[in-house]
Amino acid sequence: KQWYQRRVRGVLNQLQHYKSITFIELWYTMDTNGNNFVVLSEDVKNFASVFDTISYRPQLIFEDIKYCLVSDNSENPELVHDLLKDPLLSVAVTNGFNPQKSILGEVLLSQGHAQTFVAARTKTSFVVAVIDTERNYTHCFLYVSCEQTLCRIEIRSKSWEEQTLESSSNSKTQKIVKWLTADDFQLKASPNAAVCPKQYYYTYKNLKEKYAENIYNAWDMQTDPSKFIHEDIGIASYLICIWKSRYGDSAQDYVKFVDIGCGNGLLVYLLNQEKFNGIGIDVKARNIWHTLFSKSIYIEKFFDPKNWDEISDYNWLIGNHSDELTPWLPYVASMISFKCDFFVLPCCPWNFNAKYSRTSANLSIYQCYLNFVESLVSDFGFRYQRDVMKIPSTKRTCFVSEGRFYPEADHIMQQKHILNVVRQHSGNEIDVNCVVRSKEIKVRNGSKLDKILCSRIINFTASLLLKDVTKENTVWSAGESVHLKEIIAAIKQNIDFEQALKNQDGGIQTVLRNCNQLFIIRNGMVSLKDWSKETKKSNPRKTPNRKYDSAALRKSKLCWFHEHHPQGCNLTADACGFAHGSGDLRIISFCKE
C-alpha cells in the first residue's frame, strides 16, 4: 500500500504540469490480494456522513434490500462485536477493527425474508453487512477504508459463495467515491420518514395483492390505471400506517375522514375497504363512482371552506392533489375542532383566492409553493411533519399534522389569528372567497370546433401546399412546404375563420396538428405527409389507449388523399389504413362489454 501511495504521488506530480487537467481520478487493483484501491485527487471530506447514509439506507447501494430498520446499538455493543467476528468478514477482523460507532438492525431482502444488519466504523474505515446467522453466509457486504487520498472499497452481494469481488469501475463504487469527495454532501431525508418502513411495506403489499388487479381490470376511464392505482395504494398505505401508529387497535373506530377533491375516488374506496370510515367530495362526479365503487361514499358538490360546519363530524381531512383547496385545508381543520388533523399532498400552486406566484428566483415554483404551505401550517399552530412519499409521482412532498403546539384553552384565540393570516395572504380582503372551479372543464384543443369549419381550414391549407401539383405529374408529389405564418395570414383574410377560432380558444396550428393524417409541422414549416415514407414507431413508455384499438379503427375513415389530392393516394387500397371510397369504408360502433 505504501508503495502504491508513493507511486501515485509521483504520477500526480508529473501530471500537474498539464494545465488542462483539473480533476484526476485514478483506479488501481492490487494483483496480490485482488483488493480494489481508488486514488482520489481530493481529501476525503464526508467519511462519517457517508457511513450514516449507507447504514440507514443500504438500499441505495444494494438494490435487493427492500427496507432497513436500524438503531444505534449503544446498549449491546458486544453483539455487534461478535457479528463482526464472523469469519466471512475477515477483512475487518484481520485489520484489527475496533469500532467507534456501531449500528444493529434488520433488513428485508427481495426474496422475502428478513436478515440481521450490522454496520460499524472507525475513524478511517467502515463495514456494512447483512448476515444470515442461521445459514452462515453473508448476503451483502461493503468495506471501505480511507487513508488520505487512497481509498479501498470492496463490495459483495448475493451469497458469499456465488459472488466475486465487484469491479472498481462499478457504478456503486463510483457513487461511494462521489459521496466521499462531494463539497456539500449531507444525509438526505429518507422517504416515508413519518411511518415505520416495515409496517408500510407489508401494508402496501397487502393492499396491492387484494385490490390492484381487480381495479385494473375494471378500470373504465381513459386515464392510465397503473399510475393511479399504485399511487393511491401508496397513499392509502401511508395513511393507514400513521393512523395505526397513533391510535393503535382503535384506529378504525376513531378515524372519520373526508377526502376533499377526491377525483376518481380510488383513495376513498381503498380506505373504506380497510374499514376506515369516510367520504369523498368533488365538484364533478366520475363514472367510476357508480361502476366500480360505492356511490354512497361520494358527494358531488363544490366544497366551500366557509361552510366547514357541513363536515364538522369528521376528524381527518385529506387533500390529495386538491389544487385550489390545498391552502384552505389547514384552515378548515382549525375551524372544525382542536383535535381535527389533516393530510395534504400539494400539486398545482394556489393561494387562498388566486393562482400562487413564485416568490424566489432561486427556487422552482413548486418548491416555493411547498415553503408557502409549510409556513401556513406553522402559522396556524399545527405540529406537523413534512415528508417525501414513495409514490409514482413527481409531486411527492406531503404535510401531515400531529396536533397543535398550543393548549386547547387557547383554541378560540388561535382561530381569530388564523383568520388574520388568511386575510394577509389575500390582499387584506375582509371577506376572502375560495376560487370556484367550473364543473365543466373548457376544452381548448380545438376538438369542439365545428367539423365543417375544420374541413374548410384543412382543405384551404392543403390547396396552398398543392398549388403547383397537377394530375399530369408523373411522380407523386406532396407539394411544397409553407411557413405557418403565411398560412395563418392567408386564412385570417376570411373573418369567419378567425372569429370562430377565438370563440373556441383554439388556433389554426391546433387544427392542423389535430389532422395528423395530412400535415407535418416541423420548425414552423407545414407540409403534407408522404405515407410511403412513414414507418410505424412504437413508444414502450407510452401507455396504449384502453378505449380504442388502432387495428380496429383501420378503414373507419375516408382517405383524404384518395378523395382530394390531384394525383390520389400514393398507397394501394390494401396498404393504406384509410378507406379508398365508400365501398372500402367500415362502420364501427363502440359498445361496453
List the helices and strands and how they pair.
Elements: H1 2-15, E1 25-30, E2 35-40, H2 47-56, E3 65-72, H3 77-84, H4 90-94, E4 101-109, E5 114-121, E6 125-132, E7 137-147, E8 150-156, H5 171-181, H6 197-218, H7 225-247, H8 251-254, E9 256-260, H9 266-273, E10 277-282, H10 287-291, E11 298-300, E12 316-320, H11 328-336, E13 341-345, H12 365-379, E14 382-388, E15 397-404, H13 411-424, H14 451-465, E16 482-483, H15 484-491, H16 495-503, H17 508-514, E17 519-522, E18 525-528, H18 560-564
Average of the residue pLDDT scores? 79
Distance between the termini: 73 Å
The amount of beta strand, in percent, is 15-25%
Question: Could you estimate the helical fraction of the residues in percent?
Answer: 25-40%
What's the arrangement of strands in the largest beta sheet? 1-2-8-7-6-5-4-3
Please report the number of helical segments.
Answer: 18
Overall strand count: 18
Structural class from helices and strands?
Answer: alpha+beta
Supply Rg. 32 Å
Question: What best-fitting shape do the alpha-carbon axes yield?
Answer: globular
